[in-house]
Design goal:
The chain is α+β, with helices and mostly antiparallel strands and about 230 residues long. The protein folds into 2 domains: about 150 residues, no CATH class; about 70 residues, no CATH class. The protein is built from 8 helices and 8 strands. It has a 4-stranded antiparallel β-sheet, sandwiched between helices. This is 4Fe-4S dicluster domain-containing protein. It comes from Mesorhizobium opportunistum. InterPro entries: 4Fe4S_Fe-S-bd (IPR017896).
Length: about 230
């Protein structure tokens, strides 16, 4: 089994993606179907740390139609789907409907907790990571137990991530989606459109993994087009 994990890791790494942990579903879980339609027994999460997939995505993007919808999701789905096919798994994505509980899976797989922005806080990557998909297996995969990750937000007294947004989009009440969207689309939203969420960028952790401005601008453009 270790050999298969290493092979999957190498296949994903060819496109800048990484394995983000996994687990075996318990009998009490409502496990999604595997590749043949029977409930899966194990899941491996696939994602990124920093912007490593970006150059691979850009090379692929140049060969696609200009108006392709959701290009990053499409690219991720193709890459992860090819790996799934090679290893007898079913590939699923956070954008698939009905939605699967990716955030709950991620917390279970890596022992992470949400930051005040809702993004899971990683002890190494900070807020600069993402989950792009998952591999569902109909066999149980033995994975090492993970330690509970240090939740860096607990020791962060100043909470700059809640003080940098011009419209206070994040608060104890949750995310003010419409206020954020109106600001990003508006005349004063240029810094957010061009350089990413000011609250997210204010976080002091994982800064060496921070997405470059062009990557953040891409995600902001996708958000603003909703």
């Amino acid at each position: 089994m270790r050999g298969m994990i290493e092979e999957i890791t190498a296949a994903l790494g060819a496109n800048g993606l990484i394995l983000r942990g996994g687990f075996a579903f318990a009998n009490s879980d409502e496990a999604p179907d595997g590749v043949s339609g029977v409930p899966a027994k194990s899941v491996l999460l696939v994602g990124q740390a920093g912007a490593d997939p970006w150059p691979h995505f850009l090379r692929w993007r140049k060969q696609q139609p200009r108006q392709i919808a959701n290009p990053l999701d499409t690219w991720s789905g193709q890459v992860i789907g090819a790996v799934a096919e090679a290893f007898g798994a079913r590939a699923v994505s956070p954008s698939d409907k009905p939605y699967l509980p990716f955030q709950q899976w991620a917390m279970r797989a890596e022992g992470l907790k949400p930051s005040p922005l809702g993004i899971l806080m990683h002890p190494q990557y900070g807020l600069w990571h993402a989950y792009r998909g998952a591999l569902l297996f109909e066999d149980e995969i033995a994975l090492p137990e993970h330690d509970e990750a240090i939740h860096l937000c607990d020791g962060c007294v100043e909470k700059p991530c809640l003080k940098s947004c011009p419209v206070d989009a994040y608060s104890a009440e949750g995310f003010a989606h419409q206020a954020c969207l109106a600001h990003v689309r508006g005349a004063n939203g240029g810094p957010c459109r061009g350089g990413g969420c000011l609250d997210r960028n204010a976080c002091p952790y994982g800064t060496s993994y921070r997405y470059p401005p062009e990557v953040q601008a891409f995600h902001m453009a996708s958000f603003a087009s909703l």
